[in-house]
Amino acid sequence: MGAFHAYDIRGIYNKDFNQETVYKIGYFLPELLNTSKILVGRDVRESSPEIFATLCQGINDAGADVYDVGLSTTPMVYWATAKFGFDASVMITASHNPKEYNGLKVSKHDALPVGFDTGLGQLQRWTNERVVVPKPLKGQVIAYPVYEQYIEFQNEWLKPFDNLNIAMDCSNGMCNLFVKQLYGNKIHYLFDELDGTFPNHEPNPLDPENIKDLQKLVANTKADIGVIFDGDADRVMFTDENGRFISPDLMIGILGHYFLEEKGLKGKVLQDIRSSKAIAEYLVPMGGEIEMWRVGRAFAAIKLREIDGIFGGELAGHYYFRDFYYSDSALLACSLLLHIFSQFKAKGVSVSQVISKLETYSNSGEINFKLERKSDAMNAVRDHFQNTETCLKYYDFDGYRLEFEDWWFNIRPSNTEPYLRFIAEAKSPKKLTEVVEKSREIIQSFQHKNEHGNPISG
């Protein structure tokens, strides 16, 4: 069983982890984070009540108290952790994964993420090696509702967007706790009931299969924009009025219209190493300064705080805000982006027209290669392009990102799987094809061959 990953604890429940693992996690968490009270929220998956009960038993047997916020989005747990001064919190969720998965996202003071290198690795060792000895003085579970205060906070970020015709796929996930109270009943909602079996589609908006219903709804209602949330509502993604999926990293650029133009803020904006070069080209004239960093909340939330960035985002659809304790909130991002597109519509500019001003590169999308010799393949791709073209910028965290005059690429190993991930952009589609084909050729030379002599690709 292996559920401990770079960013969280996650896997198929009763296969990758089970009640015994969860109990031990609960028991050792107070010691790990040096606290006697832990905030806990959970999603609506069928295994969440059992995991919650077992986690609470472990925490209580360690002599610590559980503060139970009940059903929650992941960002609500982050917000409550920082807002109410908890030194530890757990959100029980598997985010966008299928229904048989579940997991735990652990945070410490100020909602700072606890990743494998900052505590989860230690927790894994303790659950494997140490013996649990329940304390004589048990903790208790204390109801700690924060729903109304969280709605009040989210309402502060609501700006007018009455002129927009909106289609919204709630994915049967946790955003359903809040969307109707925040956005009202004029929106065309889809899958707006909480259901942890996800009967309509998996709660992963990055899979094209899962946005087909939203695309049909956009067409049928002649919507100006389509919105889709993932399972735990820490990610949000969009389509334009034609149902075309908008690459989530481009929305980092669009958010600049609120923070840098409307609010007049100047400062740093965070993007991950896979995100489009077009974002910097769009935001710098507004007064933004782009900071590049590693993929994943375990790195992004800490980095945004470190640089005191205004906001940031990732290719995967996470958006981080200084005013949200440097954490990610899909609802906050959604509210602001709807407001921005509403202002453009008032000027006669459609969503697709706004995006076309920003989408100035041809993009390969993330391509996955299954291989064990990830480091050798990465180095070979890097060396080839460094030796054949003039590299203008070079980043060597989270794999490599090399930027050239009119194109760039990032090649990075997966943190959790035997995959090498490659993404490239170029001003010309012809150049993009050349780069992708050459990179594929180099990477495949490091792959194992099947019985027909062909490389095994993921």
Tell me briefly what this model is:
Helix 1 (19-32) crosses helix 4, helix 8 (250-262) crosses helix 11 (330-346) and helix 13 packs across helix 14. Helices cover 34% and strands 22% of the residues.
Q: What count of helical segments does DSSP give?
A: 14
Strand order of the largest sheet: 1-5-4-2-3-6
Largest sheet: 6 strands, mixed
Any idea what the shape is? Answer: globular
DSSP strand tally: 22
Q: How much helical structure, as a percent, in the residues?
A: 25-40%
Assign the structural class, choosing from mainly alpha, mainly beta, alpha/beta, alpha+beta, or little secondary structure.
alpha/beta
Mean pLDDT: 95
First-residue to last-residue Cα separation: 23 Å
What is the CA-based Rg, rounded? 22 Å
Low-confidence stretches at least 5 residues in length (pLDDT < 50)?
449-453
Strand residue content: 15-25%
Characterize the structure shown.
The model is unreliable at 449-453 (pLDDT under 50). The chain has helices at 19-32, 48-61, 74-83, 120-129, 147-155, 179-183, 212-221, 250-262, 278-283, 297-307, 330-346, 351-358, 374-388, 429-444; strands at 9-12, 37-42, 65-71, 88-92, 101-108, 141-143, 166-169, 188-190, 225-229, 236-239, 245-246, 267-272, 288-293, 311-313, 319-321, 327-328, 362-363, 367-370, 393-395, 400-403, 407-413, 419-426. Strands 1-5-4-2-3-6 form a six-stranded mixed β-sheet, with helices on both faces. Strands 17, 18, 19, 20, 21 and 22 form a six-stranded antiparallel β-sheet that branches. Strands 8-7-9-10-11 form a five-stranded mixed β-sheet, sandwiched between helices. α1 crosses α4 (120-129) and α13 (374-388) crosses α14 (429-444). By secondary structure, the protein is α/β, with parallel strands linked by helices. It is built from 14 helices and 22 strands. α2 links the parallel β2 and β3 (65-71). The two termini are 23 Å apart. The radius of gyration is 22 Å and the shape is globular.
